[in-house]
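Anyone up for a design puzzle?
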């Protein structure tokens, strides 16, 4: 009879509806034993600790000067063979004009 130590329980990653801002692949999240959140890309393996998925996903894209770039991860409602992604990054807000 074999026993599995509880210390060796597999990490439980949960799929989010957000995509990595580096490679546009889906982002996973898990909560650590001390209740911190970790976000990890399924493709490029980038791992970021943060309060929110925007620490890694496209929603957190910033312009120079740390302004919100207005990009959000959205469900792709028009999937095609050329663009089969479930989640895509889309410009949802007009970039606010800084010059007057
Ligand atoms: Zn990635
Ligand atoms: Zn996002």
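Challenge accepted. My sequence:
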């Amino acid at each position: 009879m074999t026993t599995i130590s509880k210390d060796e329980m597999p990490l439980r990653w949960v799929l989010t509806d957000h995509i990595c801002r580096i490679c546009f692949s889906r982002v996973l999240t898990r909560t650590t034993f001390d209740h911190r959140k970790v976000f990890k890309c399924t493709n490029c393996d980038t791992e970021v600790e943060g309060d929110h998925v925007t620490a890694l996903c496209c929603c957190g894209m910033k312009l120079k000067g740390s302004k919100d770039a207005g990009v959000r991860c959205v469900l792709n409602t028009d999937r095609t063979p050329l663009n089969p992604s479930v989640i895509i990054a889309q410009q949802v807000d007009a970039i606010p004009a800084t010059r007057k």
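A detail worth pointing out: The chain has a mean pLDDT of 89.
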